[in-house]
Every structure is written in C-alpha cells, then in structure tokens.
C-alpha cells in the first residue's frame, strides 16, 4: 500500500519546531528525521501513534523496532531508500505496528524529502497517523468491489510479499516472512506447510496449523501419496476446493486434518532454475474454491517464494563455506604459555545483502618463542571476502615463521610487509606484533597502521598505550619505508595486554578515539579473568552487530605466586674491546654470587667465558651476554650468548696436543643442559645450571 499523494504536504523550514495545530487536532503526529545524525525526532502525538511513552524512545529509528515488525521495517526501509535514490520529493505508505498489548494496527505515514543544492537528501519531515479505521473501511469497500479491484489487490499482495522476501537471508527468514507478513492474511490462508527436496525426499521445514502434524511425515518420499510429493513429482500445482475432494485424493493425510475445519488448500511446487527445490501448501478454513485469477496469483506467489528460498539456501551454503574457511585460516588451537593466561576470540561480521561475505581478513596468533618469551599478533587484511581470508592465512604463516626464526619485532614486521608487497595482491594489512618476556614483563611492540594496544592493570584500571607506528603491511614496501619503531611496555604481574582489530572499536558515525575510550571503560569494569573478559567484549560486539569482523587477543601475566625470574642482566661485548670483555666476566662472577650459585660459580664463569670467546673469535662480530634466573620446580641460572652468525657451533677433535676444540666438550660436561636457537640472522648459544636457592 504505497501512497504517492504526499505532494500536498507543505511544511516550513523550521518544522516541527512550530507544527501546525491542525495536525494535532486531526490526531496526526509529526516527525523530523535528520539524515546526517540519524536522529528521528517525534512529537507527542507521534509517540501516541506508535504507542510509546517518551521515556521508551531515544531518538534513534532502531528503537522503533519494538513496535514495527521486521517485515514491515524491511518494506519501509526499501520504500524510503528508493524515494531518496530516484529523486522523489515525497513518499507515503501504510504499515503495521505492534501495540503494547500485542495487537497489530495500521498506521499511515507521509514524508517530504529535503535535499541540499547538490540533490543529496539531508532531512525528511512528515506525519504519521493511526490508519486502522481507515483500512477497516477500505476492507469493507473491497468486499463489494469489482473483480478487477480484487485482482489488483491480490497482485499487490504478491508485490508486497516479494518485497519483504527480498530481505530474507536464510530459510527461517523466508518462513517468518510468509507467516508474519499481511500478504498471506489478505489471501485468506489459515496456515502454511513447506518442505524442501533433499536427496529424492521431501523434508518438512514448516508445519501446518497447530495439532496437524502427521506422524512419519518429517521426511517423505517423492513417490508417496501426499500433496507436496505430488506437486514436486509433476511440477504442477494442486488446488483442492472442498473437504470431500481432499479426503478422496489424499486418504493418507486427510484423517489427520479432518478435525481442523480445513475447507480448501493450494499446494504449489517451488521451482527455481527449472528444477523443484520444494513445495508449499496454503490451508484455508473459509474458502470453497479458486477463481482463475486466484490461481494465477498463487502461482506467481509460489514462483517468487521459490526464488527467495533458493537465494536463502545459497546464502546459508555460502555462510557455511565462509565459516569453515575462516576457521581453517585461524589457529586451530592456542598453545598454553607458562606464566600467562591467554584468551582469544573471533566474530565474523555480516555484510547485509551480500552472499558469501561473512568472512574477512582479521586474525590473531600466539607464537611461543625461546627463553620464556611469547609473540602475540593481531591483524586485519583489507577487504571482506575469501581473497582477504586467503591473504590473511598466508600472512599469518609468514609472521609466525619470521618470529620463530628469532628476528627482532621490527624485522618481523618489515619482512612481513615485503612479503605482502611481493605477493602480487592489491590488498594491504594493518598489524600489531608484541613480543613479551614473561620472566621480566618487558613487552616490545611494533605497529603497522593498526590501532594501539591497551593494558589493564591488576587493580582493574585500563589505559590505551600510544605506540609510534609505521605504514600498513604491503604499503611500507611499496613506498620504500620499512622503518617500524619499537616501543617498550612494562607488564607487571597481574596486568593484561589487550590487542584487537578495529571492528571492536569503530562504530558508524563515531570517532575512533571515542570508541577507544568506550572500550577502555568497558574493560576497566569487566571481570578479572581473561576468558570472562573476552566473552564480555565479544558479546558486546555481537549485540552491536556491524559489518566488520572482530579479532581479540588478551594476554595476562600471572601474579607473583607463579614461576618468575629472579633477575636478568645483559652486557654487550664488542670485538677488540678488552674492557667490555672484562666487565662481562665481572658481571657473570658478581651475578653468580648474588643469585646463590654456590659451589657452581666457577663452572658458570668458565662456561660463559668459553661461549663469549667462541662468539668473538669465530664470528668476527660482537656478542650479547644475558644472564637470568628461572624459578620453577628447580632453580636454574641461564646464560645466553647471542652473535650475528648463523653458523652453528660444532664439536671438534682437539687431539692430544691441541690447544683448541675442547670448548663444546667443556660446555657439555659442566652444564645441566645447553642448546642453540636461531635469532634472526644470527644465533644464540645458551646453557643452564641448576643452582640452590638463597639461604
């Protein structure tokens, strides 16, 4: 019921600041819709039309959903959108609202579209009024109208139902539209039954009237003597015009319907792309036949329903495929990390009206690294399709590989950017990589066009951590800028590092900084457990909806009661610098004594000196010496010597008179364990000594 007669509506520029009193006298409410802010202002009479109290309405059109059923809302949105697109000055239509007591009543609206000098719609002003009595009178007149008027009415029903079905995205949506829209009510159907063709059988997806279920008909064969089976088998609709005809043609089904006052029925094959995908039955309690016009309208309606049903089935298949692909691209499991509690979450966005786009390029990853460190990654590839997901999967793998090789965080990010640039794709990606030493709480962070991380303190307070960043991955290589500054964060015991993609923060029409402040406040008031907090944040994103994906990673450093490092010292030793070498030896000796190494102090100093000497002699470069104490079931002192050579140390036979070649034999003999780890373009030779605790 579209009314284009709204052209007579003439309103002043400042309306409804001074609405015409005649509107109120005629029980007409007024509204003013600011298309820039999205606010939909209504006067007191309009509140009465919608059966809303002023405190129940916040100025946002979405709030009216409690009164406007979904199918009606879809139709209204389509009508207003078309009027704005085709340059119309006004529009008008009838729609139904659900009153506070649950009853439905008709309402009429007229809107006048105001545009700026470029023709862009900026504002809609108009009126709403209760049209229940008017439409009841119209229904009475239609009872007495001519056959041509009745035919036009039924044609409108098909059009309105088709318009509502255009928004159906699932099979359940199709069924809901058919049950709820006023189209079937005007057709006079008491109820409907629907089934889908699957593997040569018909599976029931919508039952008839209450109490009409026939045992054993959940799944029926196409060759069985049921009306839906017959129309699928013959591709021909069946119109049953009397109870006697029903009983004669379908003796298996009729005994279960004979007590339901069914007087007629229409069963329609649902055909799409020249093949039957299902069948639908309309059951009537007050009809005794079908005119040729009735049959034509129902056949047209069946065709429209079939097309919508096939679209919905395709969408569900695409969604299942997208979900499976997304899950395959994300990590299957997140490893447990000693000294930390970790929670990850992912929510797929939903691009309304687009099939197969519930998939995107957001991802997270957690990478165990040598020496009790861990790498945390959050990222977002541009786009919302399978291509973005494929690029994301490749980028996640190379980031993990570069980090595991031992590269510094800045190098990991730079190499990932080069990789994405050379992948020959038009996509770029934002990313944030944090490498945390859980023993010391030191977190090194690099950012490539991504939003900043947040840190929640043990006391519940939360803050945004500004991190100087570089260009997004793929763009930095293209523009020749591979500099990624490294920021350092101190993560105290009990503190939580939060990384997320912008889908958790950004909202249409809202500033990013405002979104970060809102998120910060939400985290601060959330539960302390990282899993519960992650659930709360993802639930918030789910309630808010939106087209963008959300990826979330929380890493909480455990409290002091968990295994922690007793200390950490580091010294850089340059080649040809005897003073630095002497300072390193002094540091080793002093640390061994201070950390309670006991009678193993000489062994520790001897092995460390051997490793430093080997690094300086065989790599012709500098060495970085790190000492730390690791606490656990047994207390250990760990020595690490890092150099810039990727050549691995190897044992040699020194011979009886040789003066070299015994270094690794010495290391193997004196240490409790030792090994070699890749560190970017170089390596780290490490060893550990079990030492007693302090007295």
Task: Give the helix tally.
Answer: 18
Biggest sheet architecture: 6 strands, antiparallel
The overall pLDDT, averaged over residues, is 81
Strand segment tally: 26
Give Rg in angstroms.
Answer: 36 Å
Would you identify the regions where 5 or more consecutive residues have pLDDT less than 50? 4-9, 352-356, 560-565
N-to-C span: 89 Å
As a percent range, the share of helical residues equals 25-40%
| Relative strand content | 25-35%
Give the overall silhouette: elongated
Structural class by SSE content:
alpha+beta
Describe the structure in your own words:
This protein is α+β, with helices and mostly antiparallel strands. Helix content is 34%, strand content 27%. A 6-stranded antiparallel beta sheet has the order 8-7-6-11-10-9, with helices on both faces. A 5-stranded antiparallel beta sheet has the order 2-1-5-4-3, sandwiched between helices. A hairpin with a 5-residue loop joins strand 23 (623-630) and strand 24 (636-643). Helix 5 packs parallel to helix 10 (292-329), helix 16 (578-594) runs antiparallel to helix 17 and helix 17 runs antiparallel to helix 18. Residues 4-9, 352-356 and 560-565 have low confidence and may be disordered.
Task: Identify the notable features of this structure and list them briefly.
single chain; 695 residues; alpha+beta; elongated
How are the SSEs placed, and which strands pair?
Elements: H1 21-25, E1 28-34, E2 40-42, H2 44-49, H3 70-85, E3 90-98, E4 104-115, E5 121-130, H4 132-143, H5 147-165, H6 171-180, H7 182-187, E6 191-198, E7 201-206, E8 219-221, H8 227-234, E9 238-240, H9 243-249, E10 264-272, E11 275-284, H10 292-329, E12 340-347, E13 361-369, E14 373-381, H11 386-404, H12 409-422, E15 429-437, E16 442-448, E17 454-456, E18 462-464, H13 475-478, E19 487-490, E20 496-500, H14 512-524, H15 530-544, E21 550-557, E22 565-573, H16 578-594, H17 601-619, E23 623-630, E24 636-643, H18 663-670, E25 673-679, E26 682-690
Antiparallel strand pairs: 1-2, 1-5, 3-4, 4-5, 6-7, 6-11, 7-8, 9-10, 10-11, 12-21, 13-14, 14-15, 15-16, 16-19, 17-18, 17-20, 20-21, 22-23, 23-24, 24-26, 25-26
